[in-house]
Amino acid sequence: MGQDGSPAHKRPSGSGGGLPTTTVANGGGRGGGGRGGLLPRGRQMQKTFNNIKITILCGFVTILVLRGTIGVGNLGSSSADAVNQNIIEETNRILAEIRSDSDPTDLDEPQEGDMSPNATYVLGPKITDWDSQRKVWLNQNPEFPSTVNGRARILLLTGSPPKPCDNPIGDHYLLKSVKNKIDYCRLHGIEIVYNMAHLDKELAGYWAKLPMIRRLMLSHPEVEWIWWMDSDALFTDILFQIPLARYEKHNLVIHGYPDLLFDQKSWIALNTGSFLLRNCQWSLDLLDAWAPMGPKGPIRDEAGKVLTAYLKGRPAFEADDQSALIYLLLSQKDTWMEKVFVENQYYLHGFWEGLVDRYEEMVEKYHPGLGDERWPFVTHFVGCKPCGSYADYAVERCLKSMERAFNFADNQVLKLYGFGHRGLLSPKIKRIRNETVTPLEFVDKFDIRRTQVETKPQN
Amino acid sequence: MGQDGSPAHKRPSGSGGGLPTTTVANGGGRGGGGRGGLLPRGRQMQKTFNNIKITILCGFVTILVLRGTIGVGNLGSSSADAVNQNIIEETNRILAEIRSDSDPTDLDEPQEGDMSPNATYVLGPKITDWDSQRKVWLNQNPEFPSTVNGRARILLLTGSPPKPCDNPIGDHYLLKSVKNKIDYCRLHGIEIVYNMAHLDKELAGYWAKLPMIRRLMLSHPEVEWIWWMDSDALFTDILFQIPLARYEKHNLVIHGYPDLLFDQKSWIALNTGSFLLRNCQWSLDLLDAWAPMGPKGPIRDEAGKVLTAYLKGRPAFEADDQSALIYLLLSQKDTWMEKVFVENQYYLHGFWEGLVDRYEEMVEKYHPGLGDERWPFVTHFVGCKPCGSYADYAVERCLKSMERAFNFADNQVLKLYGFGHRGLLSPKIKRIRNETVTPLEFVDKFDIRRTQVETKPQN
């Protein structure tokens, strides 16, 4: 685009977008000044200087663009990175398509829209005789007992949203989290259901566990306990077992503190990130009483205001399942509390901040199987939200802490195989004992399933 | 940087890096021409025009930088995206740190470097009496039998590298893949080990399965079969069971075609993406014979050349475990083949390309439990490599096909719960039957564990 002739547009070499550079053609412009002949020396210098400025400027921004496109430190890298970038861009495009969920074969498009505040939300048709239905079924199906090897059958329910995380690292930590759960549950004979679907569009997000818990209870009569566990909670005591004998007279086992609950009405008195619910009529009734604050939209928003007013320390936001449960148990205390065990003798849920820096100290002083502050059963990364975008804590602190917790647990699993991580931040492992031609002596010694002890919480 | 005074540097508004813009100060430069007074009109126009050019240019590259930084289509988005972008950038920085594995607490830094071509690689100390060691142990430990409910105990081994995928979507599909395996294995009483560690730095990548298989055999004497399955292989027939009775006299079960193997010596005659290896001395010996082509560096490179020369259709690249196994079984046929079952009556491994477009047709015409081309047991996404960068197939085709396979399988799992996906590309689900107050009739009807039949492959 020049006034006379066409200035030379040169594309810089290298991969990543090319930027046009304009070299101002010699010969000045229209209007005054010599044209055709040599310019005065001073003017020539000025023009040259201007050209240099423009070249430097455009070279600088070219570098910035390349840097932004192909990443720091990769200047001058090969076309492989351009291919890589293309793949990532194409992936993002496909992701956006999948996220928009524009499948032409989608039938029965639901009526989108929030539930009317006047409608009454129900999880499902009211069942009133679940205990006897279940008992009859168990009698008729002895090949599906509700106890296995003398222990009540537990099913661990966890999950994550169906779509890729907003923050890519989120999926990687979801993967590690489920591996962690696979390891614990394999060693303790617990089945896992990993839910990636919203059974009820009204109850999405943290509320999604309610319809899924109900559905699993009704579909798995052989299961005695449904154990919900958040995707951001990791097992960190691989040896510890839930002391089920403590809960023979209870139907809900949840970590919390009675004084925070009854005296302070604190919104964090209990934690619904990890709790057990017995498969029985009482639990179906609890779910039915719990759910009504859940439907998204005006109901959930209004309920949130009620909860914020009622519970100590609760910020203003829509109703969440944890606050709603606390509210329910407080406002209908006589109905429910008799069967609720508020557990804090071990970390059924262990808030991560006070735990993650002490793992080395724990290894030095204690041993697995304790489940409490000496060797926490579960380390729960509340507020870290690696899958989403709006964490309550610094990203670096969260990611490194989750890495440490994962490796701390993994070391306990790898011990049987003779390995351990090089450090709590390291994905690499090293041998912790030599191999032998008689490996079974170590199986006898280290296989957790063979060294199970009924852990008694300290009182 | 100006000849006179200082040109105004203005940072453009908005997030993502600011670019300096230079507005050339009015008043011209040194040397000729009027200074201080008004320039001739023509010169003024030229200067103005030059300024406009520079402004447009720099504005253009600013847009490019922003576009590259915050993604297409996000121009003018809110500060939330800036926060999001900051989180993602910080995450990437942390990721780079984790990938570089710079943990100061790392002890015993290994001697990096390839194995000398003269050294002989061994997986571990040579065991010669594993069958009798195992038999004695099983006798002494009746609480850990090698059969459960009349079926030999199987352990499924799968895994992925310890670090986040180069392509972020890769971790999401690894997550879906492991959920798919969790579902199948829960329904069939199979234990899972998800390996995210390299037990032997020499045998990384696709070779990593060998030391892990050996380690699991020696650590789990109660396990009769180790089943290796790639992370890019999905179960697509949730009902089908491995017909173990077919393999009573065999120790390795692998999908393949005898004519491709013996007549054509094709490098894809067998597929090591999904195979079963019995826990016995024969298998330890096979692993020992298989491993020597694996150590990375000159050994693996040289071995690759041998394999390319020997096997039909093999491209030139380092030795992979599949080619090495084919080579071993061909070159030492008499030693091994008697105990190898080359299976193709059902899709122990099913190459995805010919399968994924037919799922709707399968639903229409057939039913789960067949395991073959009518309803494939396993759909294996060979060459898609969602975790890495260098796929052999188009990214879009791969991702959409994996989504379809996942949902095709998930529908079979969700059926018990009364749900199904809205379409094979949709993460959303819908009810496929109404809820009732007597849910156990559906449990009797749809619970796969209750409808297990010993499937006989067609002959």
TrEMBL record, chains A, B:
Residues 26-39 have a biased composition (Gly residues). Keywords: Glycosyltransferase, Golgi apparatus, Signal-anchor, Transferase, Transmembrane. This is Probable xyloglucan 6-xylosyltransferase 5. It holds the Pfam family Glyco_transf_34. Residues 1-42, 99-118 are annotated as: Disordered. It is found in: Golgi apparatus membrane. Residues 103-112 have a biased composition (Acidic residues). It comes from the Eukaryota.
